[in-house]
Amino acid sequence: MVEQLSDLLARNRRWADAHRRAEPDFFSKLTAIQQPDYLWIGCADSRVPANEIVGLQPGELFVHRNVANIVHPYDPNCLSVIQYAVDTLKVKHIIVCGHYGCGGVLAALGPPVEQPLESWLAPLRVVSATHADELAVTRTDDARWRRLCELNVKAQVASVSATPTVQAAWARHQPLTIHGWIYDLHDGLLQDLGVTVDGQGRG
Ligand SMILES: [Zn+2]
Predict the structure, then answer these.
(1) Which residues place a Cβ less than 5 A from the ion ligand 1?
(2) How far apart, in whole angstroms, are the C-alpha atoms of residue 175 and residue 119?
(3) What pLDDT, on the 0 to 100 scale, is given for residue 199?
(4) Which residues lie across from 99 on neighbouring strands?
(5) Which whole-number Å values give the CA distances from 110 to 93, 101, 103, 139, 189, in the listed order?
(6) Cα(84) to centroid(ligand 1), Å
(7) How many Å apart are CA 32 and CA 18, to the nearest integer?
(8) 150-185, pLDDT tens digit by residue?
(9) Fewest CB within a 10 Å sphere: which of 48, 72, 125, 194?
(10) Domains in the chain, please, with CATH?
(11) Spatial distance between the Cα atoms of 130 and 152, rounded to a whole number of angstroms
């Protein structure tokens, strides 16, 4: 457990030193170019560190994280990330990654929470309402929670696919595929939810 902020700065110096020792031009190479193939849209949860769980180095993954990996159709933050990633960086894949045990998803299964979080979670409540029949017959609270985590990923893949940026990229035949994954905190493994979409409409 890190107790003081000065510890973080000391850790940073050790991290930078270790990289320089392993590869003397590591940082100069990184500074020169940013050309990641992937955009990761994931949850802000501290237990789901994007680069680390897919074994990618700095420079290899463009990352956007927020509570419960939601892609609001009018969120200028997330939409700008997608725009920059697709139009400028020309990423080939966008990965929407949820995780089991997501606190944001759990909140959306309960009574309204305080603002602004309640507004943020609105799309999740829509997903929950859309699948109310299925969720109602899901046997346990835990299973319901897990299922909504999966349904949320699928809904956000659809949301990414519908953005003007992605639609325009597909219209000009730019290679771009959207994937829906989920991460399990218990074993550190990712699972592909099989909701991949690309510009050809292939599933
Ligand atoms: Zn989460």
Answers:
(1) 43, 45, 102
(2) 34
(3) 83
(4) 183
(5) 33, 14, 11, 17, 27
(6) 24
(7) 20
(8) 999 999 999 999 999 999 999 999 999 999 999 999
(9) 194
(10) 1-33 (no CATH), 34-198 (3.40.1050.10)
(11) 11
Expressed in angstroms and rounded, the spacing between residue 49 Cα and the centre of ligand 1 is: 11
The pTM for the full model equals: 0.93
Phi and psi at 100, nearest 5°, equal -65, 150
Q: What are phi and psi of 192, to 5 degrees?
A: -80, 125
Alpha carbon dihedral 68, 74, 77, 81, in 10-degree steps, equals: 90
Catalytic residues: 43, 45, 47, 99, 102
* CA–CA distance, 74 with 82 (Å, rounded to integer): 12
**Distance between Cα 47 and ligand 1 center (Å):** 9
User: 149 C-alpha vs ligand 1 centroid, how far in Å?
Assistant: 9
Burial profile 55-77: b = 16 or more Cβ within 10 angstroms, e = fewer = ebeebebbbbbbbbbbbbeebee
Determine the Cα–Cα distance for residues 91 and 68; give it in Å rounded to an integer. Answer: 22
3-state secondary structure of 34: coil
Biggest alpha carbon distance in the chain? 58
Residue 48: how many other CB atoms lie within 10 Å: 22
Contact criterion met (CB below 8 Å) for 33 and 25: no
Structure tokens that stand for 116 in this block: 């602004």
